[in-house]
Amino acid sequence: MSTLTKLEIAQVLRAEEDINGKDAKRMVAVFFETITHLLLQGEGVKLFGFGQFVLRHKNARPGRNPRTGEAVAISKRRVVVFKAGKTLKARVNK
Q1: How far apart, in whole angstroms, are the C-alpha atoms of residue 40 and residue 21?
Q2: Predicted confidence band at 64 (pLDDT cuts at 50, 70, 90)?
Q3: How many angstroms separate the Cα of 89 from the Cα of each of 51, 54, 75, 92?
Q4: Coil/strand/helix, residue 32
Q5: d(Cα 9, Cα 23) in Å, to the nearest integer?
Q6: Cα distance between residue 17 and residue 83, in whole Å
């Protein structure tokens, strides 16, 4: 698995779109800040042709520490799930 950093995305923008480095970094930061802000507001984010980030609510439940076997309470929480879109799935499966 490869790790893609925000800096690497900015470098691709700079090279492919002839944008200066500072503007490219800011564009990437604004993109991720926008997605984060919408998720914090409880909204999902759909990126046409790519996929969507969906916010799911998980209820509290009993759990178990796998090392000790001790019972642990898992609190209710929200989780972000990414669902790949049809276009992305089709390109990956070619």
Answers
A1: 29
A2: very high
A3: 9, 17, 33, 5
A4: helix
A5: 12
A6: 28
Give the Cα separation of 75 and 90 in Å (integer): 37
Residue 82: what residue type? F
Across 1-5, 34-38, 75-79, least confident range: 1-5
- Pairing state between β 61-64 and 45-47: unpaired
Q: What is the pLDDT of residue 18?
A: 84
**Number of residues that this document lists for the chain:** 94
| Nearest partner of 74 among 57, 59, 88, 85, judged by Cα | 59
Amino acid of residue 67:
R
**pLDDT tens readout for residues 7-54:** 999 999 999 988 899 999 999 999 999 999 999 999 999 999 999 999
CB 45 within 8 A of CB 53: yes
DSSP 62: E
The two structure tokens encoding residue 55 = 């916010």
